[in-house]
Amino acid sequence: MTAPQRLTDRKREAIIQAAIVEFRANGFDITSMDKIAATAGVSKRTVYNHFPSKEELFAEILNQLWVRVTAEQEVPYRPDLPLREQMHHLLTAKLQMLSDENLLDLARVAIAATIHSPERAQSMVTRMGEREENLTLWIRAAQADGRLKAVDPAFAAQQVYGMLKSFAFWPQISMGLPGLSAEMRSTVVESALDMFLACYELQ
To answer: Is the pTM for the entire model greater than 0.85?
Structure first.
């Protein structure tokens, strides 16, 4: 890679980091591309060269965040291991992701930014949904192996993730409650496992 390309990459990263700071501090609507440029130490033209609009810049931040916080969730289905053990890894990783302070801060910004823009909301929800695909694939594989009942895998995945989010995402987002203690995280995961397996596991 040539030096100019590396400089371009550094500027792009500086813009993204500056935008994260500004969005978290001021929200989506108040944050301007001028302020992002100033915080990044680049010209406004440079910002627009990388990101044609504030919406695209924000979408890229969310995309990178989902990628980072879900990177360790990749747990392929194993026919030789108990379902509970495998799901425990998946749900624990999900809870850890939902407790990420960067995620919570940007999720608050995202929700505020989408209240008056259904189109923007749909785009963000779609991006979030894409990052929950691993559990859906895992459920489908367990069904194919004859260990889970016939149910729409995406529906079942959304059910179990909904159980986690009711304790470890929405209370923090909507009411500013503190994150769960280690003991409470364990309780939430075990309870979600109990309900999911009682409903869908084939004996």
So the answer is: no
